[in-house]
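Think of the structure tokens as a kind of shorthand, similar to the way a musician reads notation: each symbol stands for something richer, in this case the local conformation of the backbone. In the example below we present two proteins back to back. Begin with the first one, reading the sequence and then the tokens, and try to describe in your own words what changes along the chain.
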Amino acid sequence: MAAALQGVTVLDLSRILAGPWSTQNLADLGADVIKVERPGQGDDTRSWGPPFVQGTDPSTKDAAYFFCCNRGKRSVTLDFTIEQGREVLIELVRKADVLVENYKVGGLKKYGLDYDTLSKINPKLIYCSITGFGQTGPYAARPGYDALVQAMGGLMSITGESDSTPGGGPQKVGVAVVDVLTGLYATSAILAALYHRTQSGQGQYIDIALLDVQVAALANQASNYVLGGQVPQRIGSAHPSIVPYQPFACADGHVMLAIGNDTQFAAFCRAADCEGLAQDERFRNNALRVQHREALVDILHERMGLKTVDQWCQLATDNGFPCGPINTIDRVFADPQVQARELRVSVPSEGYGTVDLVASPMRFSGTPISYDMAPPLLGEHTEAVLAELGLDEKAVANLRSAKAI
């Protein structure tokens, strides 16, 4: 079957995570993603290890980090700070549908690779810039990284135990969630721009900022402030608006109890042999449970410790309330549901042998995602892509001699 984005060409000038996460999504959807990397060095994350993945050539290895967001792409080494390299990139732009970059604001303008310049060469080009703080505003020139934006965007103020609890204080999330969300927003914006182009024939510029994404992703916590005037606080893994919705210690481990409505709470109480709690005037609906959070949680801590993790999970399945184990990553990939959904895939690679990757969560009935290309070796496709531009062996040799590739 034809892939959803078959025929779409993407130039990926981004590095690290947010941009590559977006372009990997586009590659999963069938786009031809050409990853433009610095000769001899490549994407910074190739060296962000250990752990490393050893290539079939003993002299080659790349960090596992790189493999999380670069499958399905072709790697071209190209130094566009050299005029010969810039000329090659311009030729790639002529044939491209999308360009994604995450250089500092104005960083590509000095090379004539900004949107205003390139849109004159290719008016249909969709040009997506990803930065820490956006193209405007007093912070525009600042570099931005995920952890910094988690802090500045409020996420760390609501993550972690409260200051009054031992070990309390601000914490970042255990994965670069702002980068990942930014990549997803960038993907959505690019797809919308591609659809708009089918109607207008025109490309456009997309400005995506990590800080904007983080503020938008505060979701209900932001609404609690802008509509209710309440400044959210850190409360550990509990929920500010739902009770009980937090981890509990069991006889042999921990579970996450996530009661979303009064029906589920009643079902839990029946299963836990404490049916009277559902009728207690303090706990009979969620608003009251939030009001009397401490009293209810104290009761449940004692009750939950009477059974094992497996016993509580089985009771949840039998009685229809949400409860699950707090899995380590190895247990995640051993989970029968994760295995049934085939979230771990083996992808062949000439450069690395067969590598195991995490599958895309997108599932299509008509244009399924295929896993044919592992993340590329640095410069693995340079000669093939240059040949597609019509460059012969002599021209390629000249580029090498000039250190443009």
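Once you have a description of the first chain, move to the second and do the same.
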Amino acid sequence: MAGKNPTGEIDARYSSEGAAPVQWAHARGLLESAEVFWLSTVRPDGRPHVTPLLAVWLADALYFCTGAEERKAQNLARNPHCILTTGHNTLASGLDLVVEGDAVRTKDHDLLKRLAGLYVAKYGTAWSFEVRDGAFHHPGGGEALVYGVSPTKVLGFGKGTESSQTRWRF
């Protein structure tokens, strides 16, 4: 997939001696294939809110959906700053990724149709959505708002015999 190709910078303070930065293509591939993400938002009183969700990667952004009445949607209506994380829940291997950016609601019909197709391709038919009125609609009922997060910064934490911390700026 063509798109932004930022250069990774290694942070030697948190990396094994001689560690090299992870290539963005590898990190982007993990964002495309990861099944579960954790979304961090800020409640109105300043406390953090974290919840797992599904997301798809398209055109240099992560997209997720949520009901308008859910806490994450209410938080994003007040403060769009958020973080999406994904990775391996082990110490011995893998790359954990932290995506920082602002969540922007999308209502574009054509984009929503593409995203709905990506949800089915990635997660199966249980995640089929109809697109209407600028939102996803599940056949079983319920409307879901769709948000895109274009990264402003991504951190990658490599684990295993060689640890590394790579930063990509956008």
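Compare your description with these statements about the second chain. Residues 9-169 form a domain with the Pnp Oxidase; Chain A fold (CATH 2.30.110.10).
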